[in-house]
Structure prediction request, 255 residues.
Amino acid sequence: MPKVLESRRVGRVAVNEVRSLLERHGHIVQEIDGVNDHGEDLHVTFVRDGQRTADSLAVQVKGGVSVRTRRGHRVQVGDHGDNWRDGTLPVLCVVHDPERGGLFWANATRQLRRAEALRKTLKSVVLPRDSLLDDDTAEAFVQRMRSYLRWEREGIGRWADMADVEFAPDDIVKPFMNDCGEPMVFWQKRGEQFAVLLHHDLDWEPVNIEERMLYFSPIPFIGNIILDEAEAHWLMGCFKATEWWRRPLESDGTA
Prediction:
């Protein structure tokens, strides 16, 4: 009789655990046939109040002890890096390790983009031991991923990933592309007296900026960052357009 490999059994258990958890919370999970499995095992679409949302992602599932590390788990990227980083759907890695508590997850797309910003090649996706995904954490996980997918649809998610920051739902985020094709992002949080600049030339390291720091002569600059004229005018427009969002929360009657 043909022998069923242990690795197949472990893999099937892992996939079933992920699918069971998400379906138990009402979400749509479509398994990808093994013949067409090129680095993703599941497609997930989130459901809210019984209604299908526009938020979908892909999941690569692993099981067994082979991906364990002392601090968590690692999933090898292999030749999936370009697809996981730049594909149509963001990709998560989920590991099933019942001896350590069940399911653990990480955003592979985000880690790959951050590595790109740092000019590094990511060989494996890291899943920390505190990244547990279970019935107790499922709702927070879904909310976090739906917020992430919202910014992804708006074309801004990549820059958050590269800067290793997370935009809140009520943040004002304004992207800009200079004439050299270099992207920049103006990021204003509610009630903060400063904004944050994310810039390709700054390796996406967040820089706090204020309108009083912006000068147009003798050359355009903000803080110690030299700008071209278009960038300076864009920043001025961003500051003017978001002045109301920097007001203290109590000043406009909202708490």
